Amino acid sequence: MGESLNNDRTVREYLLGRVSDETTLEGLEDSLFADEEFCSQVALAEDSIINDYVFGRLDHADAESFRSTLPVNPERRFKLQLTEQLRAKALARNLKTVGDKPSFFASLKAFFRQPMNAVAFAVLLIVVVGLTIYLGRSGNPDELAELRSIYRQARPTETRISEFGYAPLSQLRGAAEAADKNRLRRIENNLIEATEKTPNARTRHALGDYYLTQQEYSKAINEFEAALKFADNAKIHNDLGAAHFELAKTRPKERRLEDLAQSLEEFTKAAKLDANLPEALFNRSLALQELGMPREAKESWILYLQKDPSSPWADEARKNLARIENATTLSRTDEQVLSEFLTAYRDHDESRAQEIHNETKGLLKGPAVALQLSRRYLIAKQRGDEAEAKESLGAMGFIGNLEQAQHSEFFFLN
Amino acid sequence: MPEAKTKKELTREKFANFLEWLNPDPDRAGEEYERLRFRLCTFFSQRRCCFADELADETINRVIVKSSAERIENKIAYCYGVAKNVYRESLRRERPHLDIDEVTIAAKVPEEPSFSRECLDECLEKLSSDNRNLLLDYFSEAKLAKIELHKRIAESLKMTQTALRMRVMRTKLQLKICVQECMG
Fold first, then answer.
1. Residues of B in contact with A367 (CB under 8 A)
2. Does the beta carbon of A239 lie under 8 angstroms from any beta carbon of chain B?
3. CB A156 within 8 A of CB A213
């Protein structure tokens, strides 16, 4: 094969579906089947593209081309899923390492045992105090305080934004009162002005927080990334992660995981920089939960509750923990759920049978016991297996009576 | 050759013979099979075929039947020839799919099974601890730190970065096969 086809760039173009010239295409295919070395080169190039995509290292055009190859390439879709899950696993492992670190106070004690460290700390303290006073003058504490006060009753994001107090999650996203709208407009203007006058970590971070509360996630991400260029700060990483997390909810399924993985990465960095930042610990548990990693999420919530056992955030953490524990039913196959239900039904273990039914009835698909029983009844009838049909009908009657007795619900009796 | 007939002629024994035909060493035969499937899936998907994996399977099925009946010298070149035929036939079959009336009554494409994290955990456990740690280390860093991290891993394992990428790719392939088998 000619040198012109046999280079990394052409291979990459081919794999991104951007080679349409028939002669080039045939030349590449001939080599793919005839040349072992070239075949390895193609395999390696494909793997690199997938890794780069997962790491967010493809530029916009390449990422688009890559995505457009996925619908016709199930093998590649599977490899992508595998790589994304590996990435999530690797990040989750990092978090565990953070959680295993010695406590903040133990580290502090060890630090001050060294006289040189104590002197260096004193100098640093003076510099920090000076800088805080200086930046405070050009910063925007008033705007942020006002922004926080607007969301005192209902918070705008599921994740915790750093330094925002507890409020239940708003059910009416984006529907601000008219008076609040005016205040929000003023806050935005002031924050933009402060950013233009004094572009620094604090002003960019504050403006990012503003956009985050307004569900303008891409703008928020830009501001947080700009802020991080000034200072590598745990709170900024946390809020950047929050923006990615919220953005993920607005994405189509195939891009959702990408943003969630990015959010987990940012929460990980925040937790690495400050292992006691409650916002980061809370948010990373949420991210792990959303990424469908129940075991890691559970560990993370337990770790969070060790650090914050009593705030209203802790109540939410407990609810999430309970949700993960309940969801174990849903991680079983439909057949396993039905089989467990039937065992309980046959043993007259009503409370267990009821428990399994309650865990699945809201789904109205897949594992829902009532649906599975009706399917089992029809199949048994078709096969002429009267015993199985009778048992299925009996079990459906059991569920119907249960619903009628408990909730005056007649749906399951139909 | 009609597809139904090809499938009917396939037996477990013929498939085992086919693997042996690819390579008498069973371990190497598995690798050769995966490599052939990669070639075929790449060929069909880069030609924008709607069902690349099914066409790859169809090609392999035809080769299995043929290889059990007659002696074939250049195996991969032969597979390539069959793949081209399958591709041409698929073009003829795919044309009616463009008819909007056909599309509306076409059966819904079955949903892909969702990725099993349990299988991933199980298969990661089956890897050697070196390979498991290598994969988790490789995918652990933030995007900006990634290049530096990969350089460090390559140095610590005394290998070039290309060799590291190859090893990561091979380990991922091993993992992929295991997860696919586990998911059934």
1. none
2. no
3. yes
pLDDT in tens, B68-120: 778 888 889 999 999 999 999 988 876 554 444 444 444 444 556 678 888 99
Q: What is the mean pLDDT of residues A212-227?
A: 94
DSSP for A337-352, written as a single string: HHHHHHHHHHTT-HHH
Which residues of chain B does A30 touch, with a Cβ-Cβ cutoff of 8 Å? 80
Chain A closest CA to B46's CA: distance in Å? 6
ipTM value for the complex: 0.82
Q: Choose the closest CB to B136 out of A14, A93, A292.
A: A93
Amino acid A96: pLDDT = 57
pLDDT of residue B84: 94
- Number of domains within chain A: 3
Q: Are A390 and A361 in contact (CB under 8 A)?
A: no
How far is residue B132 CA from its own chain's centroid?
Answer: 21
B107: alpha, beta or left? (left if phi > 0; alpha if psi -120 to 50) = beta
Q: Is A82 contained in some domain?
A: no
What pTM does this model have?
Answer: 0.57
Q: Does A17 touch chain B (CB under 8 A)?
A: yes
* pLDDT for the residue numbered A213: 94
Q: Of A281, A300, A326, which residue is a domain's last?
A: A326
Sequence-distant (6+) residues with CB within 8 A of A140 are A190, A191, A194, A202, A203, A206
Question: Is A150's pLDDT higher than 80?
Answer: yes
Over pLDDT 90: what percentage of chain A?
Answer: 30
- Residue A280 pLDDT more than 90? yes
Q: What burial letters (b/e) apply to A45-80, b meaning 16+ CB within 10 Å?
A: bbbbbbbbbbbbbbeeebbebbeebeebbbbbbbbb
Q: Which of B42, B135, B142 sits opposite A86 (nearest CB)?
A: B135
Asked if residue A97 and residue A44 are part of one domain, the reply reads no
- What is the C-alpha to C-alpha distance for residues B168 and B170, in angstroms, rounded to an integer? 6
| Class (C level, CATH) for B117-183 | mainly alpha
CB contact under 8 A, A56 and B143: yes
Instruction: Considering only residues B162 and A116, tell me which one the structure prediction assigns the higher pLDDT.
Output: B162
pLDDT, tens digit, for every residue of A157-167? Answer: 999 999 998 88
What lies within 8 Å, CB to CB, of B86 at 6+ separation is B55, B58, B59, B62
For residue A393, count CB atoms less than 10 angstroms from its CB and return exposed for 0-12, middle for 13-18, buried for 19 or more: middle
A90 touches chain B (CB under 8 A): yes
List pLDDT tens digits, range A6-44: 688 899 999 999 988 899 999 999 999 999 889 989 999
More confident residue, B141 or B168: B168
Task: Please answer whether residues B168 and B176 qualify as being in contact, where contact means their C-beta atoms are separated by less than 8 angstroms.
Answer: no
Tell me which of A298, A326, A354 is where a domain ends.
A326
Residue of A nearest to B141 (CA): A91
Chain B within 8 Å of A249 (Cβ-Cβ)? no
Chain A residues lying within 8 Å of B48, measured CB to CB:
17, 72
B117 contacts in A (CB within 8 Å)?
85, 292-293
* Residues A158 and A280 both lie in one domain: yes
Closest to A169 (Cα-Cα) out of A130, A213, A224, A222: A213
A77 touches chain B (CB under 8 A): yes
**To 10 degrees, the CA torsion angle through B23, B29, B31, B35?**
60
